């Protein structure tokens, strides 16, 4: 009998397959499909930061900004030095017309990683 990760009968292999499929769905511009797959992965592995970051990106792509914000925040609680998560949270705040919060996270992203895209959005001069 295969090893399961919980009462749903899911196996670790199923979770990996679903994670990879969710990456493909997001790349194919189907963020809602990606979220649906990732919900089960995260239910089985709530500590999995990579799955949470991918789900946050999918929420953002689907314009579900509040769930995206919450998920990016969870990622940053676990990985405060994740420059991409700061940048993505800043973009989420920007789309919610929350410029002060956006600026703070753009600057944190740029401070953690001198990526030109992060630096250009940080606007350190003002």
TrEMBL record:
Q: Which SMART domains match?
A: TPR (SM00028)
Sorted alphabetically, the keyword list is: Repeat, TPR repeat
Where would I find the TPR repeats?
83-116
Name of one Pfam family that matches: TPR_19
Q: Which Gene3D superfamilies match?
A: Tetratricopeptide repeat domain
Q: Output the superkingdom of the source species.
A: Bacteria
The name this protein carries in UniProt is Tetratricopeptide repeat protein
């Amino acid at each position: 009998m295969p090893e399961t990760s919980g009462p749903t009968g899911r196996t670790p292999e199923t979770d990996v397959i679903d994670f990879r499929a969710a990456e493909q769905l997001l790349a194919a511009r189907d963020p809602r499909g990606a979220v649906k797959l990732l919900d089960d992965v995260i239910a089985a592995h709530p500590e999995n930061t990579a799955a949470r970051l991918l789900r946050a990106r999918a929420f953002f792509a689907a314009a579900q900004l509040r769930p995206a914000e919450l998920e990016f925040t969870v990622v940053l609680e676990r990985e405060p030095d994740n420059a991409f998560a700061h940048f993505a949270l800043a973009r989420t705040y920007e789309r919610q017309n929350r410029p002060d919060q956006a600026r703070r996270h753009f600057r944190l992203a740029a401070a953690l990683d001198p990526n030109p895209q992060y630096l250009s959005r940080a606007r350190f001069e003002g």
